[in-house]
Design brief:
The complex is a heterodimer of chains A (about 120) and B (about 110). Chain A has about 120 residues and is mostly beta strands. Chain A is built from no helices and eleven strands. Classes of the chains: A mainly beta (about 120), B mainly beta (about 110).
Amino acid sequence: GAVVSQHPSRVICKSGTSVKIECRSLDFQATTMFWYRQFPKQSLMLMATSNEGSKATYEQGVEKDKFLINHASLTLSTLTVTSAHPEDSSFYICSASVGRGGLEQYFGPGTRLTVT
Amino acid sequence: DQQVKQNSPSLSVQEGRISILNCDYTNSMFDYFLWYKKYPAEGPTFLISISSIKDKNEDGRFTVFLNKSAKHLSLHIVPSQPGDSAVYFCAARRGKLIFGQGTTLQVKP
């Protein structure tokens, strides 16, 4: 099956710093990439959808200036959490899709972010 | 507003028996429903899906049933195996995927 990697798997940073998370589709070209956030014992919440070469579409309530998404190529998308605060601590998961319908999404293993 | 709900946080079944995971939704405009399986420290992996125009889809040991009038879907795993122990998420699509909270399935040997 299609493989999606995320790096880093875990990161601890100090409040006020920025953190970049990478999402790569290893064996296919992803037309669309999605970024999700998961709180403990809760569902995956879609943060934004990004198509290669265009600006990301953010979900309601997600601050685009705080969560910067760059989808520079068909195999790489990055999420940068700027000026991180403890409330940004969460599990962030990306997924990649070949089509734009989002039905077949291949998920990365996730990144655990802890802001101290 | 939780549009997709999995009301059972956990389920425990004996190996060889049937596992039934349930999911309820509120939006009748969803066009596809999906089930994902997630192991610890891994991303969700796709299991099975069903179109809103169907009421059943089967793939090996996995069968998904859709009851549109009740806005309810279920995933049946039979026979259950210890390797099926994981968190199962249902998701519904209307443009984007909306996930339930997940149900942790434990299959005891």
